[in-house]
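Minimal example, chain plus heme C.
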Amino acid sequence: MSGSKKDIDQVSGYETTGHEWDGIKELNRPLPRWWVWIFYATIVWSIGYMIFMPAIPGLPGMAGATPGLRNHSERTNVAEALSAAEAARGPLFAKLAGASLGSVENDPELLQFALAAGRSAFGDNCATCHGSGAQGFKGYPNLNDDVWLWGGGLSDIKQTLLYGIRSGHPDTRQSDMPAFGRDGILSGAEIHAVVNHVLALSGQEADAAAAAGGRAIFAAQCASCHGEAGKGLREFGAPNLTDAEWLYGGDYETLRETVTNSRRGVMPYWADRLDEGTIDALAIYVHTLGGGEGS
Ligand code: HEC
Ligand code: HEC
């Protein structure tokens, strides 16, 4: 319904655009002035932005976006920040690798650095098996407590980290509990007896007659690794069987399974995979988790 003559809306007094639907007319009202100015300002801003900052993505023949007069690049910023962090850490890592492990715990700055580096390396390499809080799982030892298979001194821990346990490394910690049932060393009845002896050793309810029979079997078959009194021997990584801490479990069924088939948990070695500074940081981190023993 356009016409050359202006159409004024009777009720509001405004001019209309001439559009009309079922008697409803569209008023022709200009945008508020403040809005228009802001709109123009954004156009001016965007032109300035395109001149100074990277803005136009990869034109043909160009490696990336236009660099802009400021030559700004987040990628360069990240690379610079990384190399700055590297440069800042370098001397501390060198100092750590050079320091004797025991002395690090007396140097607050180096200790703080080692703990931070150790915590992050633990999250990357160890948490999958030992848990993010090093709390452990069945078969994977808790590293927060003061129960140690192979020893909780700094140098013990470092050796475990360097060469692993049953890891296949030539210097690995190695000790293989026989699979007494599977390999036919003990009969089912003998296993029943020795398991009852272990239940009694750890202060649990046991079949007294069977346990008494198991005592001699224990002395003959188990004491060489676990000790006469069953308190464990670290040179064989053999756990204490008299406490309430179990790597696999202390109930009858689990004990029977352990004695029948043995376990032989594997801890990988890190000697060729992590640099010495990182291994030191990890040893210090694990040592300070709770159960660390003198170095
Ligand atoms: C693939 C699984 C796995 C990974 C990964 C792993 N561990 Fe272990 N770790 C084990 C197992 C299993 C044992 C127990 C072996 C045994 O039964 O003697 C163990 C034992 C240990 C022990 C000896 C505990 C003691 O009581 O003497 C320490 C210390 C240790 N791990 C630290 C670490 C650290 C630090 C890392 C990371 C660099 C790590 N582990 C990565 C599986 C793993
Ligand atoms: C050659 C050394 C050796 C001999 C002999 C040996 N053990 Fe072990 N035992 C170990 C080691 C090492 C472990 C650690 C677990 C592993 O193999 O990963 C272990 C673990 C265990 C565990 C698991 C404890 C836990 O915390 O879950 C039990 C139970 C056990 N032994 C009982 C016995 C009994 C009973 C005998 C004798 C019938 C015996 N062992 C003989 C070395 C030995």
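The pocket of heme C (ligand 1) is lined by residues 122, 125-126, 128-130, 139-141, 143, 148-150, 157, 160-161, 165, 237, 265-268, 270, 282, 286 (CB under 6 Å). Residues 63 and 288 are 50 Å apart (CA to CA).
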